[in-house]
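Reply to dn_fold:

You asked what the input looked like. This is it:
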Amino acid sequence: MQAMLMLLVEAGAPSFLVTVPALLNGFLMIAIGCNVYKGRAMSWCSQTLIAVCLITISACGFAMWKNGTLEKVANHPLINPLASYTSANGTENAAQLPWQLMFDTRYPKFERLKEESQKRKLFPFIKPEAKSPVLILQADNRNGTFIEKSKKINQIYAERQDLYQYEFIGNHSTFKTMPPFWAKIWIVREACERYPDVDFIVWLDTDAAVADHSLRFEHLSPFAEEEVIFIAGADTPLFHDPQDDWMNAGVFVLRNNDKGRELVDEWMTHYNANLWRKIGKDEQLTMVRTAGLDASSSSWGSMTRGEWACKCHWDDENFAQGSLNEMARKGWGRYMAILPWYVFTERLDYASRCMFVCHIASGSTHARQLHLQRILPGIT
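and this is what came back:
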C-alpha cells in the first residue's frame, strides 16, 4: 500500500487524491475489522461508512484515471518494465518477447544471460589425488525458507567430502554494527584464526548452494599456482558484461595462509563507517528513490535489506564487492583468479543445471527458493 502511494505521488497525482483514499481505506479496514471481531451483523452506521468510503475511493480513482495518473503508474518501470523497452527489431509488442523475460525488471539483460548461457563452457578443474581440509562458511541474521535450503544443501555437500567442515553463523555481533555484506569479511577473518588447520575457506552467501557434489573447491585449476590465494567468479551477465572481469563477492575461496589473511586484512580497511547508517522502516521508500547518490550528497541512498543506507554508488569502493575489485586493480590482482561467471554465479534461468555453485544474486525470496529447490532432488 505504501509503495503504491509513493508511485502515485511520483506519477504526479494531486496530494488530496492520494491522502483521502489512503485515510478512507484505513477507516474501511477498521469498520470491517470491528464488525468481524464482534461477530455480528453490520449496523446501519457501519454500512453507511463503508459505502461512503467505497464511493469516495472510486471517485478519486476515476479522477486519477481521467488526468492520466493511473496510466503513468501502469507504465512505471517497477510496475511494467516492458513499457520502456524496445526489442532488437524495433517492435514494442510484448507478445513477441520470450515469456521468461516478462517477469523480471532486468529482463533486457536476461537476453545477454541467455546468449552467454548457450556458449560453450570451460571446465576449470583439475583432479589431483591430494585433498585439502576446507571450511564451508555461511552467515546470516535473517530467517527464511531459501536460507534453510541453502544451509541444507551446503551442509550435505560438506559432509560428503573428506576433510571438509561446515559452519553457519546466525547471530554475529558485526550484523548490528555494519551492513551484512561488509560483516562477512570480519566473519571470514575470524574463521581464519578459529580454523588454523584448514587450508581453504569457502564463503557462500545464503542465496548460493553447491550444485555438483562431485567437485572440490581446492581442485579449482587456478590453485595449482601457489601464488593464487583468492578465487571468485565473474559477476553474472545480468549485472556486468563478462568481458569486464568484475568479480562477484557472493562466493569466493580464500587460501588460509599468511598472504590470504593479509588480503582480508587489507579488504577490511576499505570499510568506511562514516558513509553508512541504519535506517528505519519508514525511510525505506525514500532510500529507494534517492539511491545511487555519491558521498558529496546530503541524502542517503542505496538502501539494502531495509536496514542500511550509504552515501555512495552501488558496487563502488565503499561496498565490499566494489572494494574487492579495486584491490584487484591496484596490486592484489596477481594473487587473485577470476573464474568464468557460470562456475559460481549460474542462476538456472536458462541453464538446465549449474556447473558447480548456483548463486541466485537477485530476485524475490520465492524465486530463490524455487531455484534452490531444483538442486535438492539431484543431491539427495
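The CA atoms of residues 74 and 80 lie 6 Å apart.
Hope that clears it up.
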